[in-house]
Design goal:
alpha+beta; 9 helices; elongated; three-stranded mixed beta sheet; 15% strand; single chain
């Protein structure tokens, strides 16, 4: 038996017993159908048993050479089969390339629609027939869907158009991310690695910090805008009152009892406008050509004696609303035009201090920084106008200097805000000469004992706790003095005494006492 023959074919067994005529003749009635069938069945069973034994014997007798020959024959058969598949694929690709080079691409459009037809029309008689015979493997491979197909004709190649998605098809779009997915991106979740959890924590904290900072910055500038808007509205009311009514600075009347001229103080337009809005109003300060134009308030006492009344308007507007800009306020220890029943009840303080914030948007006293080391700006804006609720005053600036607000005992200290009156001439000149030592601008404004002083006080960033002071003296109206006399030819001072903190950065102390020319009585 040959082991390579098909087991389902009728085997040819040369060893099978042969029927002889003698055997057939020996069986009586052999010519009958029944006898023939029995004879065949018997022979078949004999052959089957013989085939099984012979097959087993044949398998047992296969040599190593036969096995190697079978493996080589099977490998050669597979290589021929694969070569036929590759040849079929290459023939198909070459046929399509040849037809594409000789054709023009074209897309047909239907008459009633604006988009390209999803299934292009092709004249079947023009289609080039594919190769007649292709192996089954090539058919299976080329039958797979391709990302872009072309129908090949003699004249053109028609790409199969992709239908567009219509708008307004009534289908509700699904959200791309759910709330849980968003939270998992920011919050540590079960199954996250230690690094991933740490990253989420840091990222979430950074987002919180950015959000808080954005809120605070936005709130800060909104607050400044609201405060600026409020003061503009107040300024408009004051301008209207000034235009509609006229007030005179002639504040003297004859005393009916003695016949002498006495001071008689009535409210001016500031008093009539500001007092109904805030009973703490005491005046109005203005520097022409700058942003300084604000009402002035004064809180003289609080219900809590342990609190400083100066802090009340530090973060309150004139309308007593909370604001970072605060309000311009007078030192609670000062007395200036305090009147009862048209008569002054206190003498004015010799040195009046008015405070205001140095705002970044130049509101309040933020524009006073323009005076620092700027003689030309000073010469253009040397006058400070201050009006109480009864009278108008003019002051001219004679010193622009910086002090340390926390230094009280060093050789550079000058706590000028704590000196509000002068008991004698010597203390007065000592005080104004300390200011002149520190001024950054030299002026020709003279100062003498008896002059009313006014000082504008705000913060500055030159050093830590730095305070900028503009010290002024009243224009001598009784003497007919020109308000700008001595202010035209201002120069930079090269002999300035700065605060102690200014020299900590290694700056040399360049102040020379011998070059200093003090104020003093004329001899």
């Amino acid at each position: 038996m040959d082991i390579r023959q098909n087991p389902y074919q009728e085997p040819s067994c040369p060893d099978a017993p042969q029927e002889t005529a003698g055997a057939q003749n020996a069986v009586p009635g052999n010519d009958s159908p029944l006898r023939a069938d029995v004879s065949r069945n018997g022979t078949g069973r004999t052959y089957s048993a013989h085939r099984m034994l012979k097959g087993a014997a044949g398998h047992a007798e296969i040599s190593a050479e036969d096995r190697l020959r079978d493996v080589l024959r099977e490998t050669e058969r597979r290589q021929n089969h694969n070569r036929d598949d590759i040849t079929a694929i290459l023939e198909e690709v070459e046929a399509k390339r040849h037809s594409t080079e000789n054709a023009e691409p074209h897309v047909e459009y239907s008459s009633g629609r604006t988009e390209a037809s999803a299934r292009p029309r092709v004249r079947r008689e023009e289609v080039r027939p594919a190769p007649a015979e292709r192996p089954k493997a090539a058919v299976r491979q080329t039958g797979a869907p391709r990302p872009e197909t072309h129908t090949v004709t003699r004249e053109k190649v028609i790409p199969e158009a992709v239908p567009r998605q219509r708008k307004g098809n009534g289908k509700k779009k699904r959200n791309q991310y759910t709330l849980t997915e968003i939270l998992r991106f920011f919050v540590p979740w079960k199954g996250d690695s230690m690094f991933e959890s740490f990253r989420k924590i840091i990222f979430s904290l950074a987002l919180i910090v950015v959000g808080v900072c954005t809120f605070l910055i936005g709130n800060y500038y909104i607050d400044l805008y609201e405060a600026k808007k409020s003061y503009r509205e107040l300024q408009a009311r004051i301008d209207a009152a000034r235009a509609n009514r006229h007030f005179s600075n002639d504040n003297y009347k004859e005393d009916p009892a003695t016949g002498e001229m006495i001071e008689w103080l009535d409210y001016n337009y500031y008093g009539n406008t500001l007092l109904p809005l805030n009973p703490d109003a005491v005046g109005y300060v203005n520097i022409e050509g700058t942003e300084v134009s604000y009402p002035v308030v004064q809180k003289q006492k609080l219900s809590d004696p342990n609190k400083n009344p100066n802090d009340y308007y530090l973060y309150r507007t004139f309308m007593q609303e909370q604001s970072k800009a605060g309000c311009i306020f007078m030192d609670f220890r000062n007395h200036f035009d305090e009147v009862v029943d048209h008569r002054r009840v206190y003498d004015n303080s010799g040195n009046v201090f008015i405070y205001g914030h140095n705002m970044n948007n130049r509101t309040m006293f933020g524009s006073l920084r323009d005076y620092i080391n700027n003689p030309s700006f000073y010469s253009a804006h040397p006058i400070v106008n201050y009006s109480s609720l009864y009278k108008d005053y003019q002051f001219k600036i004679f010193a622009v200097f910086i002090v340390d607000g926390e230094d009280y005992d060093s050789e550079y200290a000058f706590d000028c805000w704590n000196t509000l009156d002068f008991p004698d001439e010597e203390s007065f000149y000592d005080y104004v000469n300390e200011a002149k030592k520190r001024t950054m601008i030299n002026t020709n404004v003279d100062v003498r004992y008896g002059d009313q002083l006014l000082s504008l006080y705000t913060c500055n960033g030159l050093v830590a706790n730095a305070k900028l002071i503009l010290m002024c003296r009243e224009v001598r109206v009784e003497e007919g003095e020109d308000p700008k006399e001595g202010t035209e030819n201002a120069t930079l001072n090269d002999n300035v005494l700065y605060p102690k903190a200014y020299y900590k950065g290694g700056r040399p102390v360049n102040y020379d006492p011998k070059k200093f020319v003090p104020y003093g009585p004329k001899t």
